[in-house]
Specification:
The chain has 286 residues and is mainly α. 84% of the residues lie in helices and 0% in strands.
Length: 286
């Protein structure tokens, strides 16, 4: 058993060395460098300025108070920050999003791992997961509000119920794709289950965990805003609902711009560096 694993490993190293000897590895490196040149690496920095230019042009063509320009929206952001409720509303929405995200990822990760490893439980509770995936989010929010009242607990619980089935599905598929060779190696060395999960299962599951985190965070943001519109005493969704009643497009776009900026900050400041860090083990050594 172990000889088979080590033979595969040696054959993989031999194939890589043969590629290097044939010069294919150098060509691949040159092609990768060409695709990641200085110009292509900076294209992302031109994305937002291009969007602002298009936005300004569309606002000039529309010439309507229902289509404010970027300058008007920027002034509205400053005014709402200094004299409005923008900071308090975003603090409430961030707290609700964080609580729902952490609970859904933890609960969904554990349940997904168990369902992926135990076939009988997967067959028994798999239909429950399908029902949860197809249950309308608004229906769950209304039911939680009716049963528990317009409270923070009801809002966070509705978010967790909506998000957890998606995490379960993603992690379950990741567990099913685990390499059996590593399990055989762990069995030969008689590794304890806790050490096996930490050293073998978790590194292989991290791409699926990051996928669930990225898609889940995007969905939870939207869910929290919708649920705040339905019933809440504050938050981004609650304030946008008030702006809608007064047809205040400048206020709606001001909250939207700050919301998008916060999402981009989380994406580039937290998720991408974390993804690069957890995927370092997958890179072949030089």
């Amino acid at each position: 058993m172990t000889s088979l694993i080590w033979q595969r490993a040696r054959s993989g190293r031999a194939s890589r060395s043969s590629l290097r000897g044939a010069g294919l590895d150098q060509n691949a490196s040159e092609l990768t460098f060409a695709n990641r040149g200085p110009f292509s690496a900076r294209l992302e920095w031109f994305s937002l300025p291009l969007l602002l230019v298009l936005w300004q042009g569309a606002a000039m063509v529309a010439a309507s108070r229902f289509f404010p320009s970027p300058a008007v929206v920027a002034a509205e952001v400053v005014d709402l920050t200094l004299h409005g409720h923008l900071v308090k509303d975003f603090a409430k929405t961030l707290l609700r999003t964080f609580l729902g995200f952490v609970v859904a990822m933890g609960l969904g990760g554990v349940l997904g791992f168990v369902l992926g490893r135990v076939r009988g439980l997967d067959r028994l509770f798999g239909p429950w997961v399908v029902v949860g995936l197809n249950m309308p989010a608004v229906v769950i929010a209304v039911i939680c509000y009716i049963w528990l009242g317009l409270s923070e607990f009801a809002l966070v619980l509705a978010v967790v119920i909506n998000k957890t089935p998606l995490v379960i599905t993603t992690i379950r598929e990741g567990v099913r794709s685990l390499s059996p060779d590593y399990d055989e190696l762990a069995a030969v060395f008689r590794m304890p289950m806790a050490r096996r999960i930490r050293l073998i299962h978790v590194p292989q599951l991290m791409p699926f965990v990051m996928t669930a985190a990225r898609t889940g965070l995007a969905l939870i943001w939207k869910m929290v805003l919708v649920f705040e519109v339905l019933g809440s005493d504050g938050g981004v969704g609650f304030r946008v609902g008030i702006f809608f009643q007064y047809f205040d497009m400048a206020g709606i776009l001001a909250y939207t711009v700050v919301f998008v900026a916060m999402v981009m900050l989380i994406e580039h400041g937290a998720l991408r560096p974390l993804e690069r860090r957890v995927a370092r083990w997958r890179q072949d050594p030089p």
